[in-house]
Write a structure and sequence with these properties.
By secondary structure, this protein is α+β, with helices and mostly antiparallel strands. It has a single domain, classed as Jelly Rolls (Sandwich). The protein has 3 helices and 8 strands, in the order ββαββααββββ.
Length: 138
Amino acid sequence: MKSYRKELGFRTRTRREFVNITSLVETALAESGVREGLCLVNAMHITASVFINDNEGGLHRDFERWLEKLAPEKPYDQYEHNGYEDNGDAHLKRTVMGREVVVAVTEGRLDFGPWEQIFYGEFDGMRQKRVLVKIIGE
């Protein structure tokens, strides 16, 4: 069995942003040489997310509005966490959107359903963050 590990780095331009990372994960898969197995992709920060969904701008704006209703950024003092930081909302948004995805690898490709893509969701950005890609298989 093979095991491959790669870190992807991100620095978003805004506090909240969704980034399609499918091609980066596909590149890591090609580098791994794994033809059959599993690919784990997870955010390595507690205010960021990795999730699978459709690459459609309207849907991403819907996510943004929905998440902001669930956990609005302001006022900052609504969160007990916000003593030294102002990112209590980002922790909650990450919990809702999830930490990681696992995708089957079949014949050297990510085994997606129709329209599925992998996204990095940033909820407290504009600084360097990491995503782990871990691939195991044969």
